[in-house]
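Could someone model heme C with this protein?
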Amino acid sequence: MTRFPTGQLSKNIRGGASAAVLAALTAACGGSEPGLARGKMLFDTCSPCHGDDGAGKQSLGAPAIAGGSEWYLSAQLLKFRGGARGYHHTDTEGLRMRPMSRALVDDSGDIESIVEYVVSLPIPDPPPTAEGGDVEAGETTYMEACVSCHGRDGRGVDQGVPELNPPSLLHLNDWYIESSLRKYRDGVRGVGDAAGDNMRTYAEGLTDEEIFDVTAYIMTMQRLPRKIPAPPLPPLPPVDVDPAILPEGVTVEMVQEGQDIFNTTVGICFTCHLREGVGGPLAPPLTDDEWLNIDGEYESIIEIITNGVPAPVEYPGQMAPRANRPLTDEQVRAVAAYVFTLSR
Ligand code: HEC
Ligand code: HEC
Ligand code: HEC
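Reply:
Sure, complex below.
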């Protein structure tokens, strides 16, 4: 049963308007340094769907993005780009968003710029669009199945593993919360992606009724004066490594640079191997001295990062050459140096 009209798609957006949006984006891409000003300019391509204030447009299924935190917005844009979101043929809204993420040239700082602009916008307060949800039943579901991650205030609890951190729910439209929960439940969103899979585990058992009620409860949390986005993640401490153990030609500075590449969107290694390479459901730990594909020597690590793992021994999915990121040979050597130190 669908109580929120999320699915309608006006014909002009499916065809003409998104082409126009892409053309505007191409035009907007000329020149200008990364940062707030460029982000504002690029936002012209987002506002037709997400609204001038980033508060979302129900008629297009485009949710509020103002109010999202920096790490979450970047992560979602990268997921759309990489095909971890907007991959399912029935995901009308995700498929509408995906080409928009692809038009952003992230390695020149566009994603960072646009996110900087979006987080500068006031946090919206979308009014409820549906009535009749059983708030009490919704609260029971929330306290059983959601509170451990999204927190009592809906702001998101730091899980200690950044890429698994749950987003704040406090700025979201009710129709979007409901449609997202159904997508997670039905495998239309979040399949094969560590954070998405975590979320899906908790959406899987929900009935439409429970989804409707828990959404009504989340909307009551939104009415409370608690609208502060989740705090940014603490930076990693500087690497602490004995130069004597490093292979010839490798410096501590390279290891430090590698730490940054590995644990940020520069190299996105952390999305599968998790922060500091402790391993996750999609990729093995790199912190022990057991290797699946290589002997663990520096050269073998460089080689596997360069070539990827098209046919993993144990883990699902694949590792793309250079993790599908525009990494230079120097960056590959730096991130390999970091991986080399993790198990030593
Ligand atoms: C053609 C319409 C359209 C345009 C243009 C568009 N989006 Fe979207 N966007 C959507 C839709 C629809 C969704 C919801 C997808 C879903 O339901 O899974 C979405 C989702 C998102 C999300 C995920 C929000 C969340 O809470 O997970 C982000 C972030 C986002 N868009 C950012 C942007 C940015 C930045 C731009 C401009 C570069 C942009 N969008 C342009 C339609 C659009
Ligand atoms: C194990 C931790 C965990 C639990 C428990 C959990 N979530 Fe989530 N939730 C997440 C993570 C992580 C994401 C982001 C996933 C992604 O990137 O797609 C998320 C995403 C969401 C989103 C989408 C937000 C957006 O902006 O698109 C909604 C809505 C949501 N959760 C609601 C719930 C509700 C309701 C429950 C309880 C039924 C719940 N979650 C239980 C971790 C969790
Ligand atoms: C999309 C997920 C994903 C990403 C992103 C990713 N990897 Fe991997 N990685 C894997 C998988 C899968 C394997 C192979 C596991 C297997 O054979 O079962 C692997 C294997 C490895 C190995 C060899 C481990 C062994 O025991 O043989 C190294 C080293 C490695 N990755 C480093 C990196 C680095 C550095 C990055 C970032 C530049 C990165 N990975 C990004 C999924 C990923």
